Amino acid sequence: MNDEWSRCPICFEDYSLIHRPTTFVCGHSTCIDHTIGSKRLQHCPICRHPLKKEDQYHVSYNLEEASRLFQLIKNTIDWSTVKCSPVPVISHEENNASAMIKRDEIYAHQVQAELNREIVNESSRRVRVPTRNQALPIEEIRANLTALQINQVTGHQKGCGHRCDLVSTRQCCVCSDRRPHHQDNTYPAYVDGRGIVNRVTRNEYYCTTCKIR
């Protein structure tokens, strides 16, 4: 492709925003920088058409834009100097859709077979531990729960040596209570209309830990 129209015939630079083109009356073009200054052109470098000093030359925007687009296309398609990797040659069989699907199916079967072998090998390496019958007797379950409740430590250790759920007291609920002790968890108390009775619950407001002592 002839690309002489896209570059200056004097400096051989491609027309761009730096080397801006201008077109003479004869139809030929150069960089506009060659039409000003002490080295101003007197004739067209192509056809030797005389150029008058009083003529004013302007940028040929159409030629500038066309040259830029041409350079862009040239550098991105067939004129690019970047070496691309060669396109792999695909045979007719590989290009066939059914052949490609069949090849993928074969590969999938191979992967599945390999996975199955790994699963079998992993299962054979595992040590079989005898499992206990999950249906435990009710009595054994109750015994385990009772032992768990007995061994379970609750409350906070107090100065009296007992444990209590309260935090702010130095002693447990029982030791902090100064009321007299009677049988059946009662103590003598005054009841309106009845006087002193001995059937008042003593640990009614004790914490949970002190109640089960």
Automatic annotation (TrEMBL):
Keywords: Metal-binding, Zinc, Zinc-finger. The keyword tRNA processing does not apply. The keyword Ligase does not apply. It comes from the Eukaryota. InterPro entries: Znf_RING (IPR001841), Znf_RING/FYVE/PHD (IPR013083). Residues 8-48 form the RING-type domain. GO terms for molecular function: zinc ion binding. This is RING-type domain-containing protein.
